[in-house]
Amino acid sequence: MDPDYIPQDVARCDLCKTGIVEYFCDFCHVNLCKPCIGEHISDDYKKHIIVPIHQKKSALIYPKCETHDNEVFKYQCKDCNTFLCSHCTASKQQNKAHEFVKLDDIFYAKKEKIQMDTEELEKQILPTYEEIANELEIQIASLDGEYTKLTNAISNEKKEIQREVDNAFNQMEKEINEIKVKHHSILKEHINEIKQLQSLMQQTLIALTEMEESNEISSTIHYSSKNEEFRKLPPKVNVSIPKYISKQRENEYVCTLIGKLTPFSSILEERVFTAKKPNTSVRELMDEPEVLNTIMTGLANLRSVTCLNEEQIWTSGQTADIKCFNIQGVLQTAVKTKTGEWPLDIAVDRDEALLYAYWKTRTVYKVKNDQTEIITLQGWRPLNLCVTSSGDLLVTMFSDNFMQWYLQTTASLFGQIIWSTWLFNQPIRHAKVVRYSGSTVKQTIQFDDKGQPLYSGNNNTKYISENRNLDICVADHGARAVVVVNQAGKVRFRYTGHPSPTKNKPFEPRGITTDSQCHILTADKDNNCIHILDTDGQFLSYIDNCDLENPMGLCVDSNDSLFVCERSKGNVKKIRFLK
Known about the structure:
Neuraminidase; alpha+beta; 4-stranded antiparallel beta sheet; elongated
């Protein structure tokens, strides 16, 4: 068998093909075992440069001179850019009025430039392009919503114009009915006068007939003719029926009546690359995080905490009361939920208004001066909330198949047997993240590039946070994973825990938050600790020395102080974890 094709676990000598490589010839660029060195340098030992194999990359490889045998180029002429060996530089034709530079000086200068370019490309230029791509992805994702808003605006205007047109025609029809009544009245009055005259003439005819048959002189002598009066016919009544004259309509007239769209435009705007300033406020993790304060909330099954400002926090548990404390632990105010039920999660928007979600009504409520409904879902129920740096609202939610969940979790064994066939035929529940601007959907994150669900399809908590690099981080309790996607919704990584001999219970993340250093912190309730990850999902350390008990909701204030809900105790601990 050809030894070149034998599977090898170590590098072999290029000469004998069997010896383990220990040396390298920097002149010939061949791997050598120790016994083959003599054979390799036997022709001209002076030209060979034998170095240990681990120094292979440290020795420069010069190009060979094509004019002088066994020589390598070590210089470059600055004037004509040609390479030269030591013999070439001695040539009168070359060295007269020419300046030479050592190739290794050029090499190391270029190496430094390459290193600088690599660092700039990796840390500055490429991330800028990623931001541009993410921005375009978000614009594409929000197109349907924006054009739906435009179509809805036109539809509303259409309805309004139709309403005004209907009102105008209804008024015209009313006027026609009124005119018709007048027309009828005039004709009726005139025919009544005619009928009165006809009756009078009938009476006159009867009297004339009697007089013709009578021989009385007196009545005949006193007869006076009324025909002259009857010959005066009553005036003819001419009443004109109104006619509808439609207005001439042209396209331009209609456009001015209903309005028009602004012209579609597409302009290429020049981008200017601006190098980002390095983060000078780098803060390292403390070896031993410390508890600064403990706030006793009195809330049962404490679930969520969010910072109102540097001095106050909102907290919520499985009660209808949402409480606000200062950092000394003094109760500032309390809000009772509109439904009288406990909220699944709370958040604070950029106007310092309190937001909370209630799954039964499928609604996110806002508390400022009063309680208003800002988002009501159809077919989905909200879970957890996060207000982003741009002011958008991120909501995790699960598909509306509550009856199946209710029966599975609360029905008796007998009831479950009765309903088992029905439950089996129910649709699978799904979960997703939706970005809102006000009450308008801007983005939906549900599937990966292969069309597979990103999140577990159940109603388990899915706390959510936005990192400083605009990544969206979800602690998916049901999937036992932290799922992180970029701003455009593309998967960056999934974190499923860190092996530890002292953490022997399954990793089931609950609360999640991020700090100024782009660390991701997630609560491991059953193991009574906090996992700290870097921005790429690599485990850094635990916070497990602060006597935490059942940690749930998390948040970080502007000073990077960590607030942790202890579910069973009902306490919020303020922890310093950065130097």
